[in-house]
Amino acid sequence: MNIIKRRDVLKQIAERMPVEVSPGKSLYEIWAVDVFDLAKMKNVLPKHIFKYLENTLEAGVPLEKGVADEIATAMRNWAISQGAKYYSHVFHPLTGATAEKHDGFISINREGEIITEFSSKQLIQGEPDASSFPNGGIRSTFEARGYTAWDVTSPAYLMETANGKTLCIPTAFISWTGEALDKKTPLLRSNVAINRSASRVLKLLGHSETANINTSAGPEQEYFLVDSAFAAARPDLLLAGRTLFGRPSAKGQEFADHYFGAIPERVQIFMHDVEEKLYSLGIPAKTHHNEVAPGQFEIAPLYENSNTASDHQQLIMTVLKSVAKKHRFMCLLHEKPFKGVNGSGKHVNWSIRSSILGNLLDPGGTPQANMQFLLFCGAVIRGVHKYGALLRAEVASAGNDHRLGANEAPPAVMSIFLGAQLTDVFERIKTGALKDSEKQSVINIGVDTLPPLPKDPGDRNRTSPFAFTGNRFEFRAVGASQSISDSLVAINTIVADSLDWIADKLEAYISSGKKLEDACTDVLKEIVDKHGAVIFNGNGYSEEWLEEAERRGLRNLKSCAEALPVLKEKEIISLFERQKTITPVELAARYEISAELYIKTIDVEARLVLEIAKTQILPSVIAYLAEQVKYFEALDKFSLDRSNINFVSEKIKELQSEVAKLENDFGKVHGSSTDSIEEHLKFYSQTILADMNAVRAVADALEGEVAKEYWPLPSYMDMLFVR
Ligand code: ADP
Ligand code: MG
């Protein structure tokens, strides 16, 4: 990337014409055209079959073979009529990626003619083998088969490439022994847990009909766009998704001029193209805007039930990346692609709802509804306090380590923001003020002393990892590249567990003769007494909070090396076992896979640092120095200031020695095979990362001194500001 090439690239970018996108069709024309949704099924399935399917969706009745056959046939006919030649079971293995195995509809009959075949067997179950996916020891490779099973609750859809369409069937991925090898299965189980425990509480509160209770999720996805001509010249972006070198540009995000600013036209066209695609897939993309950092943007769909939201979230990431290519951008979903400007997260908005009772985290208009709301809020407070470390562990990844606990959007300490008003209500429950004031019981809690809770608590706190935002909680610690499923499973599980605890308590109080209202107040009081320490409405980024959190006994797990081993703690294993969401064997596998992913990620990064430093930066800066020395000799009589070349020569020596240190330490870890996972994690997070940063610090200093035409990588200015 010398100056001539850079000029070429800039010219190329300046001359780019907006990519042609299909002329704006109306929303009605494109909405869900590529989805085999309930509306389409209703049209083509016999009435009794459709009824049966609805029953399965609502009450979880297993599908009979005959019914599945009818659906499979209808699905195939629809897909083929839309031009599909292939079908694929799509699943989400534990790597967090999206996996697919494609098969053709084609079959040949005895006469040698083409027929299309797709039976319920193929719809319901697939055997992708897929033995190369990490499974944390669940499957030994000689018996490596896993199978995929159709998730009836998530609709099939068509994915289109330039020359063909594929029918994609959302599936769970399970081992022959029944263990979950994917991210979907535990999510489905965790919704079952929520349904069971929430129904218990609601029944005690007097609801005879609750319908199926499910969780909702609305994820906000942040991402960066870099022109692909620059991205292609950055091996670190191509292979690691983040810059491992790069001096901050003279201007960053200090003016906040990008945040919610006018969206550049090229990006606007890209966003509309993304949304058009998402609409056709039945994904309700709702908002998009510029984010804080230059080159950073956000997309958020409307919330959906958490299983669908999770499938759709994976699709959103896929679509962002593929449509970006078409528009000659590289879409970066990494948590921290650029040093010195904001990283990217994925805020997961979460609530619990039933079709009959609505959103259970919505403060209601009646006293009874408010008591119910407070109990559900209380369940969240208790859960996050008891199992905050688990939430932290579920978002632990090499990429997210650069955000959490690194002076940037949410700290690694898990606390809850409730807002002043709701905090006050819980404060009064604690001191007994609600009970003491005027008449007894529920009426007090509702009408007399509980102020009507506004939908939006007004004060928005951006620094809290877990914030109540009026009728839902927003978990902000999730990383931009992560599947939202792990977090949803953890939240659902801890809340289900707390709801069970609440139900147990209420049952005991009531059977000992307590009035329901008093029982509820007592349960709430116990929650605030024991778990109120997790509530924090102040600035989560401040040093004082970290000290205060420590006094309150809240754990501060700064890196993966500290956070991941939480998955091995006894209380966590029994929590998941009790709620039947993740078995001990599955949890052990999950821990191993996450740890392995962390180590492999840093492996790749360390190799890249060595390679870029040795084969790009060092040769360039040495050439620059040699050239300068020649000039200075020729110009000797002018006695020019030589501080620049002295500095560069010193830094070159430093760079060589830092590279040697990294190489040496990296060699150590690969020489030994006996160390435990924990020791490996520690060594990588403490030694290898520190070595990498030391190499970078010297290289970045050099970037500020060496002539641009010699610098081998596109700069931060190029990547963040040119589009
Ligand atoms: P913010 O102000 O935090 O940027 P947005 O309105 O952009 O909020 O996005 C918030 C997300 O929360 C959207 O996906 C929205 O659909 C979702 N959301 C709204 N209400 C709920 C709810 N009750 N449960 C879960 N998610 C919700
Ligand atoms: Mg938000």
- Which ions and ligands are bound to the chains? adenosine-5'-diphosphate, magnesium ion
Superfamily (CATH H level) name of the largest domain: Glutamine synthetase/guanido kinase, catalytic domain
User: What general form does the structure show?
Assistant: globular
Q: Report the portion of residues in β strands.
A: 5-15%
Number of helices: 24
CATH class descriptor of the largest domain = Alpha Beta
- Ends distance: 18 Å
The CATH topology of the largest domain turns out to be Creatine Kinase, Chain A, domain 2
Largest sheet: 10 strands, mixed
Q: Please tell me the total number of domains.
A: 3
Tell me, rounded to a whole number, the average pLDDT. 88
Structural class by SSE content = alpha+beta
Helix content: 40-55%
Unreliable stretches covering 5 or more consecutive residues: 435-455
Q: Quickly give the CATH architecture of the largest domain.
A: 2-Layer Sandwich
Radius of gyration: 28 Å
How many strand units? Answer: 19
